[in-house]
Amino acid sequence: MSDNWVVQNLENALNTWNEKLAEIWQLITQSPEQFKGGAIWKVIINIHGALQAIGLALLVLFFVVGVMRTCGDFAQVKKPEHAVKLFIRFALAKGAVTYGLELMMALFKIMQGVISTIMNAAGVGAVQQTVLPSEIVAAVEDCGFFESIPLWAVTLIGSLFITVLSFIMIMSVYGRFFKLYLYTAIAPVPLSSFAGEPSQSVGRSFIKSYAAVCLEGAIIVLACIIFSEFAASPPVVKPDAAAVTMVWGYIAELVFNMLVLVGAVKMADRVVREMMGL
After folding, report:
1. pLDDT tens track for 142-165
2. What is the residue-wise DSSP string for 130-179?
């Protein structure tokens, strides 16, 4: 690493950005059981199991309300075809509440398969690291004390932007895990709504929303792959320009690309929900 403070400041900011992108690339392929060593997952499993009793109670309630809403009188319930239909609905809803965790994890693994397919198709083993061009390092190191004063201001502003954007990125990925845990914990309650025909829309909306959260990982991976292509072709640096102009131009274009990436990641939830009609 260079002994110049301006160069060190920029390189430290870029190292933070690269570390967060590498962490995102690693986290996006993890399951909720693996995240943070599985300690959070154990708590969620306990909550899910405790809510199963409530889900089973609501299951009966939704079933009774559904029968009352869909059947004009008790005589309709006695009809074999109607009784079988009600029995199948109740049995499927009971299975959804009892084995909801397994069903949700199966759906999560399917979405993770989509993410793995995208990674393999792109041929990207890791996110391309962003490196400070050697031309800028040489130009900054050649500057005198007074010439370096404006560079300090530009570097401080640019480094601040890069550091903040890197933490916004990683918080978006952590937020996805947070939503996965929330959906898993309360799953027995909305899944019990499948027992009644009038209330089944609640269960459908829950499943679609959970699938959208799982699919967010694919949008995040796509955004990181696109940014990797940008990082592989860094902003053009004019060797004959002044050092402050070179640094300012480089930081401005780099921060713009980072803003595009962060915006894409932040909009992943909205994009997937629009795709699924939510």
Report:
1. 776 666 677 777 788 888 888 888
2. P---HHHHHHHHT--HHHHHHHHHHHHHHHHHHHHHHHHHHHHHHHHHHH
